[in-house]
Amino acid sequence: MSLAEVSTILWRERELLELLLFKLEEEQLVLASGRTRWLARASREVEIFLNEIRQVELLRAVEVDATATAMGRPPGMSLAKLADACDQPWRDLFNDHRAAFLTIAGEISAMAEANRELLTAGQRATREALLTFGEGTPTYTQSGAAAPVQVRSRLVDEAI
């Protein structure tokens, strides 16, 4: 229940967030390469780090509440309010942690969005490729009736 313990937890959380960003970048490289062999493993590693971060966030919340109570402050303080309630050098240290969290959260959000876009594009390309092997895409006539689908022979290169 001390400021040093809160700072230690914040350092651990920052480290985990950096590792999460690294794992998201690994996942993006796998997606961009088009080789999906390792995609499940990369996604599983991202989930592992997300779970670890949740556990550390819970530990941080408990420690911040205990420290706030020991300081005579209400529980549930944000990191910015905790920093404001502290003397130097803790104020600067907690403000540095907060700034680092904001920066890495933005980087993680951008990387996760880019990965989502790659996954969506890959799914769309796979669906379209599979449609070429099926019986075609159903369409409609001007009157709204289902148009007959022309079945054509296809040659498949087994090397694919």
Give a structural overview:
The chain is 71% helix and 0% strand. It has a single domain, classed as Methane Monooxygenase Hydroxylase, Chain G, domain 1, CATH 1.20.58. The mean pLDDT is 85. It is built from four helices and no strands. 10% of the residues are buried. It has 160 residues and is mainly α.
Output the keywords.
160 residues, mainly alpha, Methane Monooxygenase Hydroxylase, Chain G, domain 1, 4 helices
- Per CATH, which architecture? Up-down Bundle
Low-confidence stretches: none
* Overall tally of domains: 1
Q: Briefly, what CATH class?
A: Mainly Alpha
Net shape: elongated
SS summary, helix count: 4
Instruction: Give the CATH topology.
Output: Methane Monooxygenase Hydroxylase, Chain G, domain 1
Radius of gyration, CA atoms, in whole angstroms: 25 Å
How many runs of DSSP E, i.e. beta strands? 0
Average pLDDT figure: 85
Query: Class by helix and strand content?
Result: mainly alpha
Beta percentage is under 5%
Describe the largest sheet: none
Share of helix, binned: over 70%
Could you give the order of the helices and strands?
Answer: HHHH
In short:
The chain has 160 residues and is an all-alpha fold. It is 71% helix and 0% strand. It starts with a helix and ends in a 27-residue tail after the last helix.
